[in-house]
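Example record for the data management plan.
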Amino acid sequence: MRLFIKRYNNCKFFNNNSIRIHFISKRFFNSSITKLMASRSQDDKLNVNERNEAIKELGVNGWSSVDGRDAIKKEFKFRDFNEAFGFMSRVALLAEKMDHHPEWFNVYNRIDVTLATHEFSGISRRDIKMANFMDKIVKDKS
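Corresponding structural encoding:
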């Protein structure tokens, strides 16, 4: 951030450093939002047939539909808390990269995960990608 800051010594009205930082941050924020929104189109939402097929395929690995909600869920069990926390850390890295965060609940060695895309009020391709990633982590571990 400092590389982009220029110091202005003769400013009568404002501290130009803070104004400059504000404009850089705003420009970065706006471009990030534009890229994010462009990557999230209605094409990401699964239609009924795609949803049913995805749940059927994920069901082989223990994923199931959530009653009363267009979402999928799974319970993961690990040897101990350390292994469960490691799993959550790996998923968190992908979640930040995708800007798509799971709902989860952790007690010791158990993690209950629910995936849904809130902006679509349903299951999207991002949920399926994240579910497959979680299954791959667990499979690679065993």
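Summary line stored alongside the record: The longest strand covers residues 72-77.
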